[in-house]
Amino acid sequence: MYVMTLDQRDSRRGHDAVPELLDGLESVAQPVRAFERTAGDEVQGLLDSPEDVVRIIAHALRDGRWWIGVGVGEVEGPLPESTRAGRGPAYVRARTAVERAKSEPQPVAVRAEDAEPADDAEAALWLLASLLGRRSEAGWEAVDAMASGDLTQRDAASALGISAQAMSRRLAVAGWTEERRGRTLAAHLLAASDPEQKASR
Known about the structure:
The structure is a single chain. By secondary structure, the protein is an alpha+beta fold. The chain folds into 2 domains: 2-113, Alpha-Beta Plaits (2-Layer Sandwich); 137-174. It has 9 helices and 5 strands. Strands 2-3-1-4-5 form a 5-stranded mixed β-sheet. Strand 2 (33-39) and strand 3 (42-47) form a beta hairpin. The longest helix has 19 residues, at 115-133. The protein is globular.
């Protein structure tokens, strides 16, 4: 299982971003227990899919206002109705991870019982964070146009009012292909850090 704890950065100097984040996450993934405010400017959710974990991390990285901690491992059963009522090693590790993220080059950290695969997953997520952090507004516009998977690059270019060649250049500069590969790699490494996921794959 994966417990995610997200803590708002510079919350004392900015407005409360928790409601906006919670609204946005509803369309990003399907957690086992929904994300909710746990204390102050912090939210927490419980997931069983490494792919969903990566989707949420990418969403929060794009937003740019969050420290992100991922705790991997056991959650005590039976699962409570509320995320914040949960207990177990994954919760403890999520707390450790989000605090660690505050002193790292990228605002995301992963903790698991087995440190090596967790460090590998964290490294992949740092690379993803670096790529997304450098993406321009034009790059995001191009990537968003392709996000549904229903449009060809030519169709997406037409929708944006640019040439197919310009669309191809935007996607290349934005690292669209690299992002998709990076997400897959990060999810694979997160699965490797969770004994339950390793046993089922």
